[in-house]
Design a protein that fits this description.
Order of helices and strands: HHHHEHEEEHHHHEEHH
CATH architecture: Up-down Bundle
CATH superfamily: Outer membrane efflux proteins (OEP)
Number of domains: 1
Strand content: 5-15%
Number of helices: 11
Radius of gyration: 40 Å
Number of strands: 6
Largest sheet: 4 strands, antiparallel
CATH topology: Outer membrane efflux proteins (OEP)
Helix content: 55-70%
Length: 506
Amino acid sequence: MLNQVVRLVRVFAVGLFFVGCAFTPPPNTPGTIREIPSDYGIGVDTAGYNALNWWRTFDDPTLDALIDTALLANLDLAEAVGRLEELQHRYRIARAPLFPSLNVTGDVNRSDTPGNTGFGGSLGGDQESPTDSIGGFPFKFPDRFAFTTYAASLGFAYEIDFWGKLRNEKGAAIHDFLASRADLETVRLAVIGSTISTYLEVVATRRQLALAEENEEVLRERAELTDGRYRAGLATSFELYTIRQQYRNAQAELPGARTAIADAEGRLAVILGRYAGNLGDLLPAQLDPDVDTDPISAGLPVSLLAGRPDVFAAFERLEAARLRVGARRAELLPTISLNGSAGFQSSDLENLFRVDQWFVNLLGGLVSPLFQGGRIRANIGVADAQYNQLVAAYVRTVLTAFREVRTSLLQLDNERERYARVLEEVEDARASFEYQLRRYRRGVGDYLSYLDARRNLIGARTTRTQVERGVSEARLGVHRAIGGTWIEGQTDLGGTTESRDDGSKY
C-alpha cells in the first residue's frame, strides 16, 4: 500500500513538472533565420577565419601596445565589466527562492497586565473582591498577571515550485547574464575598433600635415618665381594671382591640419583612459605602419554570424523573454508554501535550553488568485509582447550582421582595387617628377616645370595617404562585421541549445 502511495506521488510530481514546462512557449526559429543564405554571393575566399587577436594582422607594434593599454584602462570597458558583475548578483537573487530560507530568532516577551482583563477577567478576576473561593477554599485572585517568556528558534520558509515559475525566472536570469557577457565582448570589440580607427586617423593626419607643409613650401617658391617673371614681363597678372591664391590656400590648410592631429590624439588618449596630451611614449613621433592588401578569409555566414557578440546577445535575450512568458503564466495557478519553526521556550532564561523545553510549529499554505483586476493577465500580455519584440530584434540583428559582413567584404575588395590604381598614379607622378628633375639638371628644362611636377607628386602622395587609410579602415570593418575577438562557444542561429562551460543548459 505504501509503495502504491509513493508511486502515485511520484507520478503526480512528474505530471506537475511537465505542466509547468508547458507554460513556456517552445523554441521557435523564425522563418527568416531558417532561410539564411549559405554564402555571401560575392566570390570571396571562405576558407575560415581565426578571430583570436585579430588586430595583430596589422603587424604594428605601436598599435599592439595601444590596444593592450586600452583593454586595461578603457572606461567604457570598465563600465561594461561592472554591468556584468551586476547581472551575476541578479542571477543569484533570481535563484534564491528555489531554496528554503532559514532564520535564527531570539525573543524575549515581557507581559504585565491587570488581573481583571484578558484571560484573568474571563476567569472572574475582580479587584473589588478581596477574596474568592474555589471548591469552598478561600482564594485570593491576583491583582495583576506578570510573566516573562524567553525563546530561541530556527525558522524556515519554502515555496514549492510546482508550476516552474521560479525555475523559469532562474533560467531567464542565466540568459540575461549570458547576454550581458556578450555585451561585454561587443564593448571590447568597439574599444579595439575605436583604438585602431583613431590610430589610423592620427597616422593619416600626420602624413597629410607633412605633405601640406611640403606643398606650401613648393608653392611659396613657385609664387616668388612667378612674381619675378611678372616683373620681367614674362608672366601675366592672372598667372601671378592664381599662384598666390594657391599659396594662400596652402597656408590656410596648415592650422586646420594641426588641429585635426591634436583632436585625433586627444580622442585616442580618452580611449586609453588618459588626459589629452598625455600619451607619453605610446605614440612615437615617427609612425609608418604597413598597408596590408591581402584578402580576408570570411567563412560561412552561419558559423560567423553566430559568433558575433551582438547576435549571441540578441538570441540570449530572446530565450530569457521566452522563459519569462512561462513564469508569468504560472502566476495564474496556486502558490504552495511551507513555513515552520523549532526551538526552545521557557519563562526562565537559565532553563531555556533544557531538552524538555522544545517546541515545533509547522504551517502549510495554499494561495490561489481569485480576482486581481486583470493584473496577472496583463502581465502575461506584457511578457508575450516583449517576447515578440525580441523575436523581431533578433531577426533584425541577424539581417544587419549579414549585410555588414557582405558590405565590408565588398568595400575591402573595392578599396584594394582603388589602392592599386592610386599606386599607379603615384608612380606616374614620380616618373614625371624625376624626368623634369633630370631635364633641369641638364639645363634643358625650366625650374617651374620641375616645381609643378613636384606639386603633382605631393598631390598623388596625399591621395595615397587617404586611400591607405581607407584600405586599413575597410580591413577593420571586416573584422568588426565578422565579430572580432568573439571566441566563446557558438550556438547556431536556429537556437539549438548547447552545454556551456559552467555546466548549464540554454
